[in-house]
Amino acid sequence: MLTDVCPYTLGIAVSDSPAATSARYFAPIIERNSIVPVSRMDRFSTIQDNQKLLQVEIYQGESQYVSENIFLASLNVPVPQNKAGHEAISVRFSYDVNGLLEVDVVVDSTGQQHRQTIENRPGTLSPDELGKSRKRLASLKFHPRESEINKAVLARGDRLYQSLLGADRERVASAMRQFEAILDGQRVPEINRMRDELIQFLDDHDPDARA
């Protein structure tokens, strides 16, 4: 079976200190070979006290250094002044088979939203094609944690954890942590596989399910 994939990694420039402007790093959000359409999100925070602005610079490439990757676009995101690390933004990349990249940025503390749309070949998509691509991407723009089935499994695991003691409780906690880590990765095939395994695990450890 043939599938469409993202041919290169997409991400943004980050720094780990205010003085690191000459040695900025590439933070991948969508990795190359991800099956498209695809949507991924990550969070980034301020690195200076009273910082007023976060500049989101978008790159494609495979190097850990942004200077060796290809610059695509940027957008300036105002944030409330606060202590370093106390203000954060959620950055979501959504990429379609037509080469359309939508970058959605939300300021966590205020809910203010910003968007940048980048076309792989500007002007080649018709208004109808653009509309269809945006519709496909819109259906992906939620975190897997928000899925009803995933929320139900997490809730069931928490109820089971509360009912158990000792080693059984710790085993349930460990399985839940693994599933939550997979959810944070936002890779749907892995989530589906891990969820099936977790449901079977909960069945095996749930006295009510075994009755």
CATH architecture of the largest domain: Sandwich
Ends: how far apart? 42 Å
CATH homology-level superfamily of the largest domain:
Substrate Binding Domain Of DNAk, Chain A, domain 1
CATH class of the largest domain equals: Mainly Beta
Structural class, by secondary structure, is alpha+beta
Task: Using the alpha-carbon principal axes, give the shape.
Answer: globular
Evaluate the radius of gyration.
20 Å
| Mean pLDDT figure | 85
In CATH terms, what is the fold-level topology of the largest domain?
Answer: Substrate Binding Domain Of DNAk, Chain A, domain 1
Q: How many distinct domains?
A: 2
Low-confidence stretches: none
Strand order of the largest sheet: 2-1-4-5
Helix content: 25-40%
Question: Tally the helices: what do you get?
Answer: 5
Largest sheet: 4 strands, antiparallel
Strand content: 25-35%
The count of strands amounts to: 8
What order do the helices and strands follow?
Answer: EEEEEEEEHHHHH
Quick recap:
The chain is an alpha+beta fold. The chain has helices at residues 127-138, 148-163, 166-185, 188-205, 207-210; strands at 10-14, 25-30, 38-45, 53-60, 70-78, 88-95, 100-107, 113-119. Helix 2 (148-163) runs parallel beside helix 4 and helix 3 (166-185) runs antiparallel to helix 4 (188-205).
